Each structure stands twice: as structure tokens, then as C-alpha cells.
Amino acid sequence: MAVFSRLIPAATSAYLLQTLLALIFVPQQNEKYYDLGGAAGFLSTAFISLYYPALKSKFFDRNPTPLPSILSFAPRQLLVSAALGIWSIRLGTFLAERAIKAGGDSRFDEIKKNPRKFTYFWLAQATWVFLVGLPVYMVNVLPPLLHPALGLRDYAAVGLFAGSFFFEVVADRQKGAWRRAKNAKQHDERFITRGLWSISRHPNYVGEVGIWTGIWALAAGSIRTSHYPIGTLALTAASPLFTYFLLRKVSGVPPLERAGDKKFGGDLKWEEYKRTVPIFWPWGSTN
Asked: Transmembrane region positions (predicted)?
């Protein structure tokens, strides 16, 4: 369908930016800006998904008409784009600042020494940017007049996004405050067990999954219309599902749990923490 062809500029922009960043940082073996590059990818791809028709008209077709006002877009387009933007800026700057302060990202200690493998990670990030942001891009490429009005489900979705975003931010700030207090020798705890970290061993990741579930649910109001073929909504559910899979099974929880076992193995408090606090969902299993 024509509406899917409108995603091509967004997909192209996602891969072009990460390719450019790889050309800059792979030769330097510099991973400090990897997460910031991901955030920039989400922001630029969302912008292209909204403005590509106007940009094409202005710069390729030589149409002197000015770019459309932000207020000319449908409320749903503005909300999903704002949600993506808020999340991208907050998380990207948070992770980049942490990597810069630490002098790097330990995940890439060996990877960055292999140019081919390091390049692959930049391109994999482009895939992440496109797949996870897909509900937003699908909403943005649909002309403003074709979007249905917001309803109760949409406001509930906004609430889920906002609550999950708050949950993630609080978890990160609690851990940051705990670490600063430890550095100031105000306590001698080896690992954090306070606040949200007392109900989940990875509460920041729980918030992350909730954020993308909320964005997908908000986008659903437009994606499930007749302007998209049946099954499109299920396709875009890959956004929160892929987020959960990556964090719970691949690059989030597993390496952190292994690192914790290696560092704190044999510590009775660590074993008690793992036995009593759920590994992910606050109401879930400890394993």
C-alpha cells in the first residue's frame, strides 16, 4: 500500500544517520556517544516521518510554500511524537552522560576493537530505532485529516506512558542518589535495595517497557483504521514486544544479573535480595 511506501524515507534516514556515526566513531574506537546516537536517530526519524512530504515539495520540487506549522498536524501525531521526543532526549542524555563520566561503556570494551563488529552494532541500532519507533512513524506518515479524534483509550495510553516514564526516571534517580551517597561514604551497601529497587531488581527496564506499550496503545487509534490493512496493529506491537525481549532476554537483565552474581556471589544479602525481590515485574517471579 501507498501508506507503507511513505515509511521508506523514515527507514532510510534511520540507517543513514547510524552509518554516518559509524564512519566517525568506529575508526576512533569511541563508544561514548553510542546511546546519544540512538536518541538522535529516534528524533531525526520521527521528524522525517512527519515532514518528509513538505521537505520533498520544498527542496526537490522547488515549491516555495513554507513548511507546515506544527499545529497543522493531528493531535495524535503531536502526542506520539512528543512522547518519543521526551523519552529520547531524557534517556539519550542520561546514558551519554554516564558513559562520558565513566570514560566509556564496558559493553563495548572488546567490540570496539573489531571494526566490523562495531559497525554491525551501529547498524543494529538503526534497526532498533526503526522497529521500536515504528508505531510513531506509522501515525506520522498518515495525513492529518485521516486521524480519528482522541478518546478515552487514548487518554489511558497517555497515562500509561506518563506513569511508566515517571517510574523509569525515579528508578534512575534513586540509583544515582544511592551511588553518590556511597561515593561520599554515607553508607557501605554493596548494591541498591531501596525505593523501587525493593520491588524489582530492574525497575528502570520495567518503566521502559511500559513507555513503549503506552506509545503503541496511543498510536493504535490511527493504525487500526481502514487506512491500514488488517494485521498492521499486530505488526507494530513489535515495538513494545521487541523492547521487552531485548531488555529481559538479551542486552538488559541477563548481563546485569551475571555481573551481579560474579561481583556479589557468596554475599548472603545478595542471595536474599535475589530470593525475595522479583527479577522484573514487581508482581512476577524472582527468576
From this structure: 6-26, 33-54, 118-138, 150-171
Please choose, from the candidates 101, 89, 94, 107, the residue with its C-alpha nearest in 3D space to the C-alpha of residue 31: 107
pLDDT at 143: 93
CA distance 112 to 27: 9
- Return d(Cα 222, Cα 240) in angstroms, integer: 17
Q: Is 142 helix (H, G, I), strand (E, B) or coil?
A: coil
What separation in angstroms does the CA of 7 have from each of 13, 130, 138, 159? 10, 10, 7, 28
Lowest mean pLDDT among 5-19, 95-109, 114-128: 95-109
Cα gap 9→26, rounded to integer Å? 25
Please classify residue 150 by burial: count the beta carbons closer than 10 Å to its beta carbon, then call 0-12 exposed, 13-18 middle and 19+ buried: middle
Q: Which of 24-28, 101-105, 158-162, 235-239 has the lowest mean pLDDT?
A: 101-105
The long-range contacts involving 278-282, CB below 8 angstroms and separated by at least 24 positions, are 278/199, 278/200, 278/201, 279/200, 279/201, 279/202, 279/253, 280/200, 280/201, 280/202, 280/205, 280/206, 280/248, 280/253, 281/200, 281/206, 282/199, 282/200, 282/203, 282/206
